[in-house]
Design brief:
Length: 481
């Protein structure tokens, strides 16, 4: 039998958030066995738990888009250089991050091939071939894939040379249809974050300096991490007809006139797993919302060698598995080790069962998010677990909302903006004139960027925070990942 006290220390040996947030994050990624580093800089190995969380996120969003008529497809990972060059602003925006294939075997290629940093050009090339008539529209396509961006500074899930994501690419007959699509997907992203990941977001539009290369408009959801930094958690872009003109994607409308299509593009990646860690994790490890937890309930036998304990645990697992994602930890590790190990991995609910519980006809349930314990009669355990999981999900969201609210501040003058940026982490609300020069000055002077122009506008004042010009919009400012 393993020693509980020493084993717990081994499992829980992670840096505290207060001591070093970045190190704490990395400790959880590695010790909760979400991912491991690979031999290629900036690339990670998605371990079973990390990939299973991504599958839960994937399933939630995939259902939303399929319910609204979208189809999954798959495009090649290699893009000819000539194809990438067709949209100048787009290629310029991605040029520093592009990885190139120059040889096939021992032979130099006649044309370099880009490993996709994103797939706009591939979808455009395809759409130019398959769209001829208004009857071919809309084209509502999405793909689940990996992309390659040669990042200088990387961190697992948050920024990598290769990462997993989905990228939607749609084509429409009118600008209004494309705009409706763009905003609908942004709502879906908000739904995934709020309803599944228990993460509140701010929805808004990116400034021109921050919009996606080649887009007419970029919309974003911004979430606030526990250290007060913002994380761009999903973006949706309206391309208007810019890409269509570059790639000659035309169709014959109902009046038999030739028109260019209007396009959208949208993406959400595995950085949402990073958000889960940084919004909900604690000094004991990962804390997972029940809706995306690959294991919702772990059954821990106590004194498993005693008569009837394992048999009852097996019966419980069989009973509960029809409604919940349940694991029975029947390993030979000590209960103390198991408690700490499953806490580290963020399992929302722990069910403990030992000889005394069997005698009393009850089990002990322990919440991961706040460590609260309760005893429940064996014949009521299923309904109790259902209520507890719902409560954990809603409580985690509420705590995240309270954290976002407590760390959102208002600046009415440039001096206030500077003081808040220096002394506090979090979101800062301030008015802006719309000038790119003011935006850049704030970024260079204070180290904060315009996270978004929120849809929910407030009139905090009449003047821009950085100049004497009339303010046009409220902007959310902050430091980000």
């Amino acid at each position: 039998m393993l020693n509980d006290k020493n084993d717990n220390k081994k499992v829980l040996a992670i840096t505290s958030r207060e001591e070093d947030f970045a190190r704490w994050y990395t400790d959880i990624v590695i010790k909760a066995e979400l991912a491991d580093y690979s031999t290629v800089k900036g690339c990670i190995v998605y371990r079973p738990l990390g990939y299973a969380i991504w599958e839960m996120i994937q399933a939630a969003f995939d259902k939303m888009i399929k319910d609204t008529g979208h189809h999954n497809v798959y495009m090649p990972m290699l893009i000819p250089e000539s194809l990438l060059q067709k949209e100048a602003e787009h290629v310029e925006g991605f040029a520093p991050e592009v990885a190139w294939v120059t040889h096939g075997g021992h032979e130099k290629l006649a044309e370099r091939l880009c490993i996709r940093p994103t797939s706009e050009t591939l979808f455009c090339d395809h759409y130019a071939k398959v769209i001829q008539s208004h009857r071919d529209l809309p084209k509502l396509y999405n793909q689940w894939c990996s992309v390659c961006r040669w990042e200088k500074t990387t961190r697992p899930f948050l920024r990598g040379s290769e990462f997993l994501w989905q990228e939607g690419h749609t084509a429409h007959a009118t600008y209004d249809e494309a705009q409706t699509e763009t905003l609908m997907i942004l709502d879906f992203y908000e739904d995934v974050c709020r309803d599944f990941l228990a993460i509140p977001v701010i929805k808004g539009q990116k400034t021109d300096r921050e919009r996606f290369a080649g887009a007419k408009a970029t919309y974003t959801i911004e979430s606030l991490m526990n250290d007060g930094k913002s994380l761009q958690s999903g973006t949706s872009h309206n391309f208007s007809d810019g890409f269509a003109r570059a790639f000659d994607i035309k169709f014959t409308d109902k009046n038999n006139e030739i028109q260019y299509v209007y396009q959208t593009s949208w993406g959400m990646s595995t950085r949402t797993i990073g958000a889960l860690i940084m919004v909900h994790g604690d000094d004991n490890g990962l804390v997972l919302p029940p809706k995306v937890a690959p294991t919702q309930v772990v059954i821990i036998p106590v004194a498993s060698h005693k008569e009837g304990v394992m048999e009852q645990c097996v019966r419980l697992k069989s009973q509960l598995s029809s409604k919940f994602r349940v694991v029975l930890d029947d390993s030979d590790k000590s209960p103390g080790w198991k408690f700490a190990e499953h806490e580290m991995k963020g399992v929302p609910l722990r069910l403990e069962l030992g000889p005394k519980d069997i005698e009393s006809g009850q089990v002990t349930l322990v919440r991961r998010d706040n460590s609260e314990k309760c005893t429940v009669a064996l014949d009521e355990v299923s309904s109790a677990i259902e209520k507890l999981l719902d409560k954990i999900q809603s409580d985690m969201l509420q705590r995240a909302i309270e954290h976002k609210t407590a760390n959102t501040r208002v600046a009415n003058t440039y001096e206030e903006l500077a003081a808040i940026a220096e002394q506090h982490a979090g979101f800062i609300k301030a008015m802006w004139c719309g000038s790119g020069e003011c935006e850049l000055n704030i970024k260079n002077d204070l180290g904060v960027t315009a996270r978004c122009i929120p849809f929910e506008q407030e009139q905090l004042g009449s003047k821009c925070i950085a100049c004497d010009e009339a303010a046009k919009q409220l902007v959310i400012w902050g430091k980000s990942y």
